[in-house]
Amino acid sequence: MNGYKQHAGPDGLHVFNRTTGINILFNEIRFKKENWNISPKNVSIALTDKCDLKCHFCYAPKSSSELDFEVLKSWILELDANGCLGVGFGGGEPLLYNHFDELIEFVSNHTRLATTITTHGHLFSDDRIDKLTGKINFARFSMDGVGETYEKIRMRKFNNLIKVLEDVSGKIKFGINYVVNRETVNDLDDAYKIALELGAEEFLLLPEIETSRNSGFREKEKDLLKAWVAEKGNEKIRMAISLNSSEGFPVCGISENEIDGSHFYLHIDSKGFLKRASFVSLGVEIAGEGIIKSINRLRENY
After folding, report:
1. Which residues contact 97 (CB under 8 A, 6 or more apart)?
2. Which residue has the higher pLDDT, 175 or 223?
3. With the C-alpha atoms ordered 161, 162, 164, 165, is the resulting torsion angle positive or negative?
4. 143: Cβ–Cβ under 8 A, 6 or more apart, which residues?
5. Residue 162 CB-density burial (10 A; 0-12 exposed, 13-18 middle, 19+ buried)
6. Contact 232, 198 (CB under 8 A)
7. How distant, in Å, are the alpha carbons of 148, 150, 235, 256 from that of 232?
8. Stretch 208-223: mean pLDDT, rounded?
9. Between 119 and 244, whose confidence is greater?
10. Helices 69-81 and 291-301 meet at what angle, rounded to 10?
11. Is residue 217 pLDDT above 70, yes or no?
């Protein structure tokens, strides 16, 4: 199928086109485990820990760590050749990665992987948007509250973010990542309305993760969020929630045959460690053995 990638895994045959965004799952087609693609469907990659914001709930380490560009390219080629469907670049702030523009060009020109980025958006410009148009398939912009709530957390002008989203709309498909905590939960309606008006295709709910500095998502906020999701269930925008916070919410499972989630998603941090998720501490160092051998080692040990 011209333009389509295929992934054989526990849920069947997944066929995907990065240009159109079409996903087709042939779940009646079953493969023996030894014939599954080793790569997961999706891999998120923290390019760097550098960020020019200091959001209090952020669990990402604040350091100057970033991935070696040449090594990263070799991992990406391995993933592409072994059935991965898409890579998502984050951080830190991915636009602070020293080779960001080169990386996007590389993935676009030398692989069939879909490319997504997660960004705070304040480093976007007209020139940046032009460079990324046609090169990335989806952008996720962080919006934690609106107006004064957002500005208190991010220490950036909310209207500047809105201007970026207006400029991106119609050029790059995008969604909103919304951290939910006691500060932001009451702004959900306004944020969702803005997402609809600006043409966002996804509204991703990210209940705050507990860290040594923050209490995380409490039961009070969880109850409010459940009621809000139930109310918005028939809206036109795609709604999602982070997997680690999905219990009790009306979500689709990854696959009834997926044992541990690692055939759907894995994460690479900015120090070159492969993990099951971005917020967990345990993982394996990829080093010189390459990404595919590291995936097998992760599945065997964690």
Report:
1. 47, 48, 50, 66, 67, 89, 91, 103
2. 175
3. positive
4. 150, 161, 176, 177, 178, 191, 194, 195
5. middle
6. no
7. 24, 22, 6, 26
8. 68
9. 119
10. 70
11. no
Share of the chain above pLDDT 90, in %: 67
Contact 145, 110 (CB under 8 A): no
Q: Name the CA dihedral angle for 162, 151, 139, 56, rounded to a multiple of 10 degrees.
A: 180
Instruction: Give me Rg for the CA atoms of the chain.
Output: 19
In the predicted structure, residue 62 carries a pLDDT above the cut 70: no
Please give the pLDDT value at position 189. Answer: 93
65 Rama sector, left if φ>0, alpha if ψ -120 to 50, beta otherwise: beta
> Which residues, 6+ apart, have CB-to-CB distance to 96 below 8 Å?
48, 50, 51, 52, 123
The whole-chain average pLDDT of the chain stands at: 88
Q: Encoding tokens for residue 113?
A: 């992987």
Query: How confident is the model over 271-290, as pLDDT tens digits?
Result: 999 999 888 889 999 988 99
CA distances from 18 to 2, 240, 257 (A): 12, 20, 25
Query: How high is the pLDDT of residue 281?
Result: 86
Q: Is the pLDDT of residue 250 over 60?
A: no
The tokens for 182 are: 């006691």
**40-48 mean pLDDT:** 96
Span 21-45, average pLDDT: 93
Question: Residue 177 phi/psi, 5° resolution?
Answer: -100, 120
Q: Is 38-301 CATH 3.20.20.70? A: yes
Helix locations, 209-284, DSSP H: 219-231
From 263, 186, 204, 207, select the one nearest 254 (Cα to Cα): 263
Q: How many CB atoms lie within 10 A of CB 269?
A: 23
The DSSP code for 243 is G
Beta bridge mates, 238: 202
